[in-house]
């Protein structure tokens, strides 16, 4: 009896010591984890602030560069030659009615119609972020002002007001003498920049400032009441045209960029706001950590006595699995709490492993079948090409050169059709088409004539495969009349003023006006609905996707018979 009491006492003492040790370890680990998480959260927030500031600077820089490019493009459209400079001076020097007469006279004389209000009005259509356009010429007291409410613009006496607006300024220079004639101002909307800055960060305290090369403040954005920093920046810019970067660095994460165009971009994020945000997160972390400590101590006390037994159950099952018995599963009814979840997870893992083994086995079988089919698909075309080449050589040896040419043309067509390349050169595409027509000519002797012509500069032009062949095939399917002896088709590829023009003409049956109208309408659609002209729309969509919006397919009836299909697009820049 005494021995039992001693044993019971020892077990109880050992349990208490283990509970205390585990409790101390758990509490220490939780506190260390909380401290690590707190420090990591702080440094992550600071790092995120630096990244956010850099992203804000990059975003503003890209936006300004885009706007600056737009402004230069607009100015270039108005002043890139002496004729346009003269037109601009005439607008500022005369009444609108006299200027309009001048524009018409210039159009009759030169063929170019330059009308300043119309040109400026087009800018609002091209760019949706313009708030106003101002032009000031040195020799005139009036200046030109255009707004979204009055896009054509008008002349106004005095000096334009540019304060507190996002204006980009450009000098107006004479393209011949390089004399500065005045200034060109474009006011852009700040909405895109402000919207991007608003959604850029998850914490408060971000401010952004943009100054022009002359020190003019283009943009001020702040998410907090930061009048002190704002006043400091404005004061320093007025005094020395320099930003107070050192004074701002102490209290802010700071990113500064001076663009090649002379713009100063400054983004600051308040360290105080970041610290407040981190402390708020830490308060939540401390409360959660305290609750976790109490919960773990309670669960540890409740489960410790059964812990060893439940672990033995799990380890016994794992021993059977290690011996290769994958059908073994842990009895979840004999475990509790986290060990029950562990048992369930192990059982799920064993189920997945068994399923993965089955899936991998089936996949290997499918891969072997696919590999075998791939070998077969490689052997068959190779065998077919060799057989055709043997027939061609045999025809040559027998003196039947015409039959050899037909076999060679057919072999070339077959090889091109089975080639997996997605693009080809214009010369190879036309050579493929020529062999296609040649086979029809051999089939219907003295009934089909053809002529292919290509500029030397276009022979290496890269385009999608089967871009022209479907158009020629349409002729032989729908347009040719084999009862006639004067069937003819021609293809001409020319380079005219930097634009590629490919003309396919035939003297076939032609297309009725109603059907031609339908085809032209469907070619503008994005959905393929033409039953008899799927090839036309397919070629149109593929080439438009490849060469971009400059591509155009036009279909017109010839003066006598047949149709003419012209493919035109800008010459790709190599």
Automatic annotation (TrEMBL):
Q: Does the keyword Lipid biosynthesis apply?
A: no
User: Where primarily located?
Assistant: membrane
Q: Which residues cross the membrane?
A: 21-43, 282-301
Q: Which organism is it from?
A: Enterococcus haemoperoxidus ATCC BAA-382
One GO molecular function term of this record is: phosphorelay sensor kinase activity
Q: Does the keyword Phosphoprotein apply?
A: yes
UniProt domain HAMP: residue ranges: 305-358
Protein name according to UniProt: HAMP domain-containing protein
- Provide one Gene Ontology cellular component: membrane
A Pfam cross-reference name: His_kinase
